[in-house]
């Protein structure tokens, strides 16, 4: 196995009486794409927020690109990026101004050229001079994805990357993400409820339930292991098992 881009060990997060993440350990090899799958409230967003350093873990350790993210995440941050439906951009700034601000923050060289490339890739050319706040949800998602690739990240963390996109836009974005990942050799960890997206993009799946990893494997092996025809059916099996247990 090659180098590990992400190493998580016994990671937990408690919000008062709620244990959102319950001692999970996993690693993601450099250059691979891994999915965090789980029902509502399984702990996906909390895990990603801890990996980004937005939330402090209750216990456990996180290393990204060899950097201890709990003690000093700054050496890794410029080499990472993320998308999240929970992080908004300033509404009054235009798309171009927003992307330019982030490009400066990330110290992107040849900013204008990079913005032009991303505008073309994400079909943003006609939106660049519009106020971000005036865009539709799907248009905002495309801007957020362009923002996430500004610094050509080596590690990309994504929470529901195509959630508000129509099927055609979602398909285009998945192709773009796959191309970026293949060309750059980036490591991607994404949370998604879209099983087709996971089957298409991900080498490996972490199944999360009530803050714990209950299974992990390739999409094909999970389907085989559970005797199902699709990852969606595996997901439903695991979710129903959870419901059955909590009924007792
Ligand atoms: N700030 C908070 N305060 C209290 N509880 C929280 C907080 N954030 C998350 N939780 C709880 O932690 C658990 C995990 O939430 P999280 O948002 O990580 O789940 P998720 O897998 O991303 O769910 P979804 O698919 O619905 O987005 C849930 O029970 C949630 O209610």
TrEMBL record:
InterPro entries reported for this sequence: AAA+_ATPase, ABC_transporter-like_ATP-bd, ABC_transporter-like_CS, ABC_transporter_ATP-binding, P-loop_NTPase
Any matching Pfam family: ABC_tran
Entry annotated with the keyword ATP-binding: yes
Annotated PROSITE patterns: ABC_TRANSPORTER_1, ABC_TRANSPORTER_2
Record keywords: ATP-binding, Nodulation, Nucleotide-binding, Transport
Coiled-coil regions, chain positions: none
GO MF term list: ATP binding
Domain ABC transporter: 6-235
Keyword Transmembrane in record: no
Domain of life: Bacteria
Assigned protein family: Belongs to the ABC transporter superfamily.
Name of the protein in question: ABC-2 type transport system ATP-binding protein
